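Let us work through a complete example step by step.
Step 1: write down the sequence.
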Amino acid sequence: MEEVIKAKIQSLIDEAIADGTTAGMSMLIRKEDEELFYINRGYKSIEEKSEIKRDTIFRMYSMTKPITAAAAMILMEQGKLDLGQPVEDFLPGFANLQVEDKGVIRPAGKPITCHYLLNMTSGLTYGGGDTLSGRMIEEYLQECQDKMFTDRAVTTEEFANHIGSIPLAYDPDSSFSYGLSADILGAVIEKVSGMRFGEFLDKYLFVPLGMADTGFWVPKEKQHRLANAYEMAEKGSMKPYTGNYLLISHTMEQPPAFESGGAGLVSTIDDYSRFTQMLLNGGSLNGVRIMSKETVRFLTSGGLNMEQQKALEQWVGLEGYTYSHFMRRVCDTGRTSGLSREEEYGWDGWLGCYFANFPKEQMTILMMQQRKDAGTIPLTRKLRNTLLTSL
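Step 2: predict the structure and record it as tokens.
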């Protein structure tokens, strides 16, 4: 049966490569703490005809966010971080919050807490739209990008404090918007721990879990393993994408000044599977405990209130899901736009990396690709549906 499923999956991926939907994909399915099967198809580099391999390194983009959430859980468990505490207690740039309300700037109705950051109910966005707040965020992101490879590159803390001076899209906790919340939480983790964000992740997650290829940059000796990124072009073809979107260096050649908690990590499919398996195991892996079972239950549960949920469901494809702790979570299997399972949670990234955990089935689906604006695309849902009809 598993070989039949694997053949179907390979066929779907091969069709997608042929029609220019993706350059290639690495996929791993684990169930009951064992590997069910692994697939790699297509190219790490189309130009060099270099195939994707099991140790290929991918830019995670928003698959960074669940790891940032886990870091916050560790600090909470250590008694060092109160999620109900205002962000301004750690980052003074958030002390005098303002909100853009129908074109008028006014004081915010309440402070942003760390928990609002984790649920994307902070009022922070990624910019865009016909608002002063959106334009100010976009202008600041461009300013930071212009400084990226200079001695004036903006740090994680500097970035966060400046974002605090920009008017919010709405009062904290009154709605939902996907945005810069995880980047701000990364800066909070730095202040609370007294360590650089990357150092904290190394000490409490990556080293204990054996995630040796995960971090905020790719050393010279590993650069040949970093996958090229692509975007769709005309006539079903693909062309290279080399932008530094959201202040993430495309080349990943040097340690960044800004360690993005929302988008900055690279990883391999096996490294990230260690993180997802730790969550399925209730906080431990191979005898090493990262966090308690109670903390994992908290991390992988929760959701939005009715008003916040209305805002989330403007996001086509997330019907039937709620959101908390930087992850989607199934709340109504009958409303999802494809097959789903009770208690399922996970997230994806802008270049197409994707994971879903299924606690009842003790199963993980992991997909890695590098295609601009991928996230959860039709190909992802087709592959999910094929798997969930059979496993």
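Step 3: interpret the result. The chain is about 30% helix and 15% strand.
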